[in-house]
Amino acid sequence: MMATTHAFAGLAVVAPVAYAVPELAVPLAVGALLGGIAPDFDLVLEHRRTLHFPVYGLLGAVPAVGVAALVPSSVTVALAAVAVAAWLHAASDAFGGGLEMDPWTNPTERAVYDHWRRRWVRPRRWIRYDGAPEDAALAVALAVPAFVVVDGHGWLEALVVVGVAVSIAYALARRRIARWSPDWLE
What are the tens digits of pLDDT across the range 67-79? Predict the structure, then answer.
């Protein structure tokens, strides 16, 4: 899935809390956005293995949420949002396609690495590949609850609007991008 889809998923997860406790909306949103995209910083390393933790991430997210619930502050809720969104990102990568730049010609059976079991999880391909039309549709759908989180915070609202535009533009250009990509990206 696209990084924007993961970011919007993180925002959607924190939306109920941000709605209930609006004074924590900004730290929740910032944490969810950072956590939603952070695992993909391993794109230049071993993608979907180095910073993706579909099992161990939950072991970090649960205590972070517990601390935020017991001691709610801007810092604790932001850190909890980072942990939950990062775990959600890693876990949901199994629902998409594999690691390849052109999954429509040469699909692999490696979606995300499970450090607990020391093996690759196979892709489910519910979202066929990052930037697929269904990925863009999911990103747009997840942006709706994201607006609940960022409502009234102009720069965050603008960020969500830009994220939706980037999602749609990327989906429209995705197949061409694969043709233009250098061999070292694969």
Answer: 999 999 999 999 9
For the chain, the domains span 3-176
Tokens 């998923």 -> residue: 9
Cβ pair 27, 75 in contact under 8 A: yes
Note the pLDDT tens digit of each residue in 81-126: 999 999 999 999 999 988 887 877 767 899 999 999 999 999 999 9
Residues in Cβ contact with 50 at an 8 Å cutoff, skipping those fewer than 6 apart: 42
Distance CA 86, CA 73 (A): 20
Rounded to whole angstroms, what are the CA distances from 80 to 68, 70, 123, 171, 179? 6, 12, 27, 30, 39
Amino acid residing at 12 = A
Give the residue from 100, 77, 78 showing the smallest Cα distance to 34: 78
Geometric angle at alpha carbon 22, from 21 and 24, rounded to 5°: 75
